Amino acid sequence: MLTVSTVNVNGLRAAAKKGLQEWLAETTADVVCMQETRAEPEQLPAAVREPEGWFPLLAPSATAKGRAGVAVYSRTEPQSSRIGFGSAEFDETGRYAEIDLPGLVVGSLYLPSGEVGTPRQDEKERFMKEFLTYLRDLRDRAAAEDREVLVCGDWNIAHREIDLKNWKANRKEAGFLPEERAWMDEVFAGGYVDVVRLLHPEGPGPYSWWSYRGRAFDNDSGWRIDYQAASEGLAARAVSAHVEKAPSYDQRWSDHAPVTVAFDV
User: Fold this and answer.
1) Which residues are identified as catalytic?
2) Whole-angstrom Cα distance, residue 98 to residue 261?
3) How does DSSP assign the chain, residue by residue?
4) In terms of DSSP bridges, do strands 238-243 and 226-231 run parallel, antiparallel, or are they unpaired?
5) 250 and 224 Cβ atoms separated by less than 8 Å
6) Given this model, what pLDDT does residue 213 score?
7) Residue 150 forms beta bridges with which residues?
8) Measured between alpha carbons, how far is 38 from 17 in angstroms, rounded to an integer?
9) 8-22 average pLDDT score
10) Which residues make beta-bridge pairs with 192?
11) 196-245: per-residue pLDDT in tens?
């Protein structure tokens, strides 16, 4: 079995103090993808920067210190690794990193969140355009090398109405715009499969992010924006998928929860 978890940690230093360190020590995952790490490697405690039994790839933002940042932790030493996806604008912004394992490419993605009517949304749309081209190229390149692909992360888009609790109120908000949802259609029509939705076709959810405001967590008023997008061959081997939602609000170490998928490889 191959087990992969992905989670937006909402600040790796803060999450490590709240319970991430213990979760990382106890998880059965073989690979963990993290987003919004917000830290330089030297700022992290050794137990997080170089945890025993893991091979970490850390990709902080070089353009906005303390913002964004992604990471991939693997129990198997990667054959190779890359930061960025060949983008002049985004490769140093801490938005994407990937590793090569035997027969598999695993990427960690933190797609910009955007904000309607602002330059942040323009940035998000530029990223989406470039990254879709990269996803297609990656699919073809991996297939030529007889590898599967798994791109995990915070995609900052709820794809369908069953992917967020209050979809009617968010139809004009970033993260659920028609053009963003159409972009996700293109991703999943281009040789990638939403593994969690494959195994949980009905919904609602399972949600992976809940606002800290109000009682969103307690009421399970969330969004499903953390995805594992697998190449078709790997998706066919997925046997289980679940969100590791904390038992209670005070036990959360992020506003997201790990999304964990097991593959029979």
Assistant:
1) 110, 154, 256
2) 18
3) -EEEEEEE-SSHHHHHHHTHHHHHHH---SEEEEE-----GGGS-HHHHS-TT-EEEEE--SSSTTS--EEEEESSPPSEEEES-S-TTTTTTT-EEEEEETTEEEEEEE-----TTSHHHHHHHHHHHHHHHHHHHHHHHHHHTT-EEEEEEE-----SGGGBTT-GGGTTSTTS-HHHHHHHHHHHHTTEEEHHHHHS-S-S----B--SSTTTTTTT--B--EEEEEEHHHHTTEEEEEE---SSGGG-SSSB--EEEEE--
4) unpaired
5) no
6) 87
7) 106, 230
8) 14
9) 95
10) 231
11) 999 999 999 999 999 998 899 999 999 999 999 999 999 999 999 999 99
Q: How far apart are CA 6 and CA 33, in angstroms?
A: 5
Annotated binding site for Mg(2+): 8, 36, 154, 156, 255-256
pLDDT in tens, 121-150: 999 999 999 999 999 999 999 999 999 999
Tell me whether strands 104-110 and 148-154 are parallel, antiparallel or unpaired.
Answer: parallel
Tell me the C-alpha distance between 137 and 82, whole Å.
Answer: 15
Q: Break the chain into its structural domains and give their ranges.
A: 2-263
Tokens representing 192?
Answer: 């990638």
Residue for token digits 């059965």?
A: 28
Q: Whole-angstrom Cα distance, residue 103 to residue 79? A: 10
pLDDT computed for residue 214 by the predictor: 85
Q: Would you mind telling me the total number of residues written for the chain in this entry?
A: 265
Per CATH, the number for 2-263 is 3.60.10.10
Tokens of 174: 């970033």
